[in-house]
Each structure stands twice: as C-alpha cells, then as structure tokens.
Amino acid sequence: MRKYIIKRLLISVLILFFVSFLIYLLIRMMPMSFVERLAMQKSQQPGAKSYAEWMAQLNSVYGLGDNVFLGFGKWLFNAVQGNFGDSWQYNMPVLEKFNQVIGDSMWLGAVSIVLEFSIAIPIGILAARKQNTITDYIITVVALIGISLPEFFFATMVKLAFAVKLNWFELYGKVSRSHYMMSYWGQVLDIASHYFLPILTITIVSIGGMMRYTRTNMLEVLSCDYIRTARAKGLPEHTVVNRHAFRNTLIPIVTIFGGMLPGLFSGFFIIEILFQIPGIGFTSYQAIMQGDIPFSMFYMVFMSALTLVGTLLADILYAVVDPRVRIS
C-alpha cells in the first residue's frame, strides 16, 4: 500500500505539472493589450500600486517578457515557494486573501457533506430494505426531485419562501449589520442563521443522487449468495444489513466522496455566489470577473490539485472498505 501511494503521488504531481502548464498557457494567450489596460485600471484604484509596479510584478511572477517555457519555469519556481503574486482585485498577496476566505468555504462544505451522508445513506438503505413498498416509492420520488432540481432554481425558491415571504432569514451575506454589537453566542447564532439556507440548498439538492446510489447498490448486495447464507443461518436482519451488506455498499459511495473533496475546500461556487457567502468560490468568481490574473490562476491550479487528491483518497479508501482491493 505504501508503494502504491507513493507511486500515485508521483503520478499526481506529474499530472498537476502538465495541468498547470496548460493553465499558464491560457493565461499567456491573453492579448497583452488587455493585460496592460487592466493593470492601468487597477493602478487607478485608491491605495493601489502604480501601473509600472503591476506590470513589473506580472513580468516577475509570470515571465511575460520571456518565451512560454521559460516563463512557466519562473512561475513554477515562485509557486513552489508559495509566491503566487499579489491579487489585482484585493490588493494583497494571493495566499493572504486565500487564508481569509477558505474557512467559510470549509465550514459550509463540511456541514453540508456530513448532513448529506447522514441523511442519504440511511434513507437509501431503508428504501432497499422496503423495495416495492409505499416507503420505497416515496423515497424514490423525493430522490428524483432532488436530482432534477437545479441549484440556482432551488436556491431562488428557498430565498423567496424563507427570506422574502416569511422573513425568517437574511437574503445574502454571512453576518447581519448589528453582528459586532451582539454577544458571543448571539454572533454564533447570527452566522448560523445566515448559513442555514445555503446548507439547506446544498443538502436537499445533493441527497437525491446519494440516496439512489445507496439504494441501487444495497439491492445488488442484498441479492448476493453470502447474504442469503447469512439469513439462512438465522442472523437478525439488522445484522445482515448493517454488518455484512453495508460495507460492500460503501464502494461507490467512496467514489462520490472523493469527488466531493474539491467542493469542501474550494467552495460551492454557485451557492456562494447566490448567497454571497464570502468563501473561496465567491471570492474567485469576483476575481475572475475583474480579470484578476494571479488569483484566478491560483484558484484553477488549487482546484486541479484538490481533484487529484480526491481521486487518490478515494482509491485508498477502496482498500479500507474492500480487503480484496488491498490484496490485489
């Protein structure tokens, strides 16, 4: 297993190298007139660096005056040292801005994923155990509704119902205007109330697919010979399902979990934009819309790295869930 992990890490580093080169190549393909005009606009903002300083930074970090390969080498040398340049949109180092916003995205993603697994997996197992009953039909309909609902549509309906009509929650943002005049627990409740609708939206939209995956794979496992043997031995049904069948059902779920890792650390892009949660997704959207080259490139490389890590983590968890994978 150790050799396998080392091998996969080396392959992931190689893939990330080529992906970073492609992203850098796209950045270099932008017309220099656009870059110069953008640098001029940023230099005119209050407290911003001068036009010459912006262009000097770009030439230093991205090697715009050199050929593509030499320029990428300079960028890679700076990136390995943690120097991704200064954000044009936020007038601060890219990593400093990243550290300010990543916490909000992690909380939003972590709570949503925990709720999704906690709700979808037990309900999916229940649907499999109650196959072709009214319970199964209701769960299937709810799952299909969740799969079919676009995030932006459901988020709009949720805001209309709970924020506009009922006025229970705020439409946008992370905190209220009076947040800093509240007590500690008042501030905690204020943040939680702002996070409620985004988390509700992510959870409802996501659990449908997870429920279907769990139900389908549980039905397949329950029809296996070793499950019939366990039942023939007189084992209780909950033991057969929870101890013998559930572990084999986890394999496709592990695949889904590996794909969720980028969302956990890189922000739920659409949700953060719709609710204006100041996480990495919303921050990156603003940076991209404003032509913030340093932050945009960092975000794309960061997303690529998380995707590779999620894939590797899923492969490792396969061996934990299924010993046959570990043996082979």
What does this structure look like?
The chain has 328 residues and is mainly alpha-helical. The protein has 2 domains: 2-83, no CATH class; 97-278, Orthogonal Bundle (MetI-like fold), CATH 1.10.3720. The protein contains 14 helices and 2 strands. It has helices at 2-28, 32-43, 51-62, 68-80, 94-129, 134-148, 151-165, 184-222, 225-232, 237-266, 269-275, 280-289, 293-321, 323-327, and strands at 86-87, 92-93. The protein has a two-stranded antiparallel sheet. The longest helix is centred in the middle third of the chain and has 39 residues, at 184-222. The chain is globular.
Give a nutshell description of this structure.
The protein is mostly helical and 328 residues long. The chain has helices spanning 2-28, 32-43, 51-62, 68-80, 94-129, 134-148, 151-165, 184-222, 225-232, 237-266, 269-275, 280-289, 293-321, 323-327, and strands at 86-87, 92-93.
Major beta sheet, specifics? 2 strands, antiparallel
User: What is the CATH homology-level superfamily of the largest domain?
Assistant: MetI-like
Proportion of helical residues: over 70%
- Write down the secondary-structure element order: HHHHEEHHHHHHHHHH
CATH names the topology of the largest domain as MetI-like fold
Strand content: under 5%
Question: Layout of SSEs?
Answer:
Blueprint: H1 2-28, H2 32-43, H3 51-62, H4 68-80, E1 86-87, E2 92-93, H5 94-129, H6 134-148, H7 151-165, H8 184-222, H9 225-232, H10 237-266, H11 269-275, H12 280-289, H13 293-321, H14 323-327
Helix pairs in contact: 1-13, 5-6, 5-8, 5-10, 6-8, 7-8, 7-11, 8-10, 10-13, 11-12, 12-13
